[in-house]
Amino acid sequence: MTHTILVTGGAGFIGSHTCVALAQAGYEPLILDNLGNSDIRVVDRLARITGRAPRWIEGDVRDRALLDRIFAEERIAGVIHFAGLKAVGDSVADPIGYYENNVHGTWVLTQAMEAAGVRTLVFSSSATVYGDPERSPIPEDAPCRPANPYGRSKRIVEETLADWQQASPGWRIVLLRYFNPVGAHESGLIGEHPQGKPNNLMPFVCQVAVGLRDKLVVHGGDYPTADGTGVRDYVHVMDLAEGHVAALRKAQEAPGLLTLNLGTGQGASVLDVVKAFEAASGRSIAYEIGPRRPGDVPAYWADPALAGRVLGWQARRGLEQMCADAWRWQQGNPRGYE
Ligand code: NAD
Ligand code: WQD
To answer: In the CATH hierarchy, which fold is given to the domain comprising 4-182+234-265+301-316?
Structure first.
């Protein structure tokens, strides 16, 4: 029997790639998305990649009546919960809106799952819960000191899900802390298309390469790193997608709560990314060094050993492939799914 997995936020960047990995692993993804930050034309692209369009429902995870209907009508084996808001700057300007969506949304979902007897949940957390870490690589038991409302919303969800699992030990929960997801599916048919000016490095570099932006401003060239620019753990979105399938399988094995980093374990600087992107695209990326971005941490990367041991998962795709795949998507789809 094919297991149906409810994928909240499944039309978004990481969710859509995870739908590919789920379909390829024999699961049936069912997308629930309010399309607040995505374009449902992604399902046609998913059909071209996997041979079958995923079913989808337009709606909000905070809509309890809708969730009750979905759980009553479908045989859902588990939930992967991506739906949420993710822009750090917006969360500073609208903290309550972020807690409302990310925290309250998860609580409504959890209560609907409990009522329906669906107790398997994989949750999208973020390395941002670590804040400014004391050292890298960061293990999962490092202190969590999120530095903004977005990060706190993820941490509050982690803590409340841990409380919930203690109270209801039949639950199977995996909290996945992603580092910096980038890249696109190898086909170039799906990828990330931020609305407006991109906040994140890789989409910005893509837009410079394709001629939509003049130049990249590097946020700080005087950090205590090898070349003075910020260092992060960039992880290919398809590696991440496969990590979700492994996490789901693990959750299905036994009740409990697991917290796992998903990263490569390797740091790359802003200029490393620029160089790798130039090599992958054959375009030169104009850039200038600007001031530091407030709130940025100089350098951090994951200790992914626990995910390796527990899930048998490790990132397989390197920075070259992340850039090559991001470029293929950007070049083929300069205006996203339009
Ligand atoms: P995304 O914005 O592309 O995807 C999120 C999806 O959720 C969107 O399709 C949006 O329309 C939908 N959504 C938002 N609120 C909703 C709601 N209340 N009900 C239904 N649908 C809703 O973002 P993404 O990069 O794919 O991120 C997915 C998840 O991973 C998010 O929870 C994010 O916080 C987390 N995460 C992302 C990153 C990153 O850098 N991209 C890093 C760590 C964690
Ligand atoms: C990477 C590096 C920048 C843009 C954010 C969120 C985090 C997580 C992932 C969700 C840094 C530099 C960037 C630019 C630059 N999201 N940069 N010029 O800040 O590590 O993480 O996304 O959970 O919560 O905070 O990612 O891609 O913005 O930046 O020089 O125009 O690139 O300073 O060193 P970040 P990023």
So the answer is: Rossmann fold (3.40.50)
Q: Which of 67, 43, 73 is nearest to 55 (CA)?
A: 43
The bound ligand whose nearest atom lies closest to the alpha carbon of 191 is 1
Q: Please report, for the chain, the start and end positions of each structural domain, with discontinuous segments joined by +.
A: 4-182+234-265+301-316
CA angle 239, 241, 246 (to 5 degrees): 90
Q: CA quadruple 101, 103, 106, 111: dihedral positive or negative?
A: negative
pLDDT tens digits, one per residue of 308-336: 999 999 999 999 999 999 999 999 999 89
125 C-alpha to center of ligand 1: Å? 10
What distance in Å separates the CA atoms of residue 327 and residue 280, rounded to the nearest whole number? 8
> Could you identify the atom of ligand 2 that is nearest to the CA of residue 151?
24
Catalytic-role residue among 98, 130, 150, 178: 150
pLDDT digits (tens, 9 = 90+) for 216-256: 999 999 999 999 999 999 999 999 999 999 999 999 999 99
C-alpha of residue 217 to centroid of ligand 1, in Å? 25
- Proximal ligand: closest to the CA of 16: 1
| Phi, psi angle pair for 28, to nearest 5° | -110, 105
Beta bridge partners of 20: none
Q: Is 178 a catalytic residue?
A: no
Q: Is the CB of 86 under 6 A from ligand 2?
A: yes
Tell me the H-state helices in the chain. 13-24, 42-50, 64-73, 88-93, 95-98, 105-116, 149-167, 201-209, 237-253, 270-281, 305-311, 319-332
- Tell me how long the chain is: 338
What value does the mean pLDDT of the chain take? 97
Which one-letter DSSP state was computed for residue 26? Answer: T
Asked whether 273 lines ligand 2 (CB < 6 A), one says: no
Q: For the beta carbon of residue 135, count every other beta carbon within 10 angstroms.
A: 9
Chain segment 53-70, per-residue pLDDT in tens? 999 999 999 999 999 999
Q: Does ligand 2 lie within 6 Å of residue 204's CB atom?
A: yes
In sequence order, what are the beta bridge partners of 158? Answer: none
Residue 3 C-alpha to ligand 2 middle, in angstroms? 36
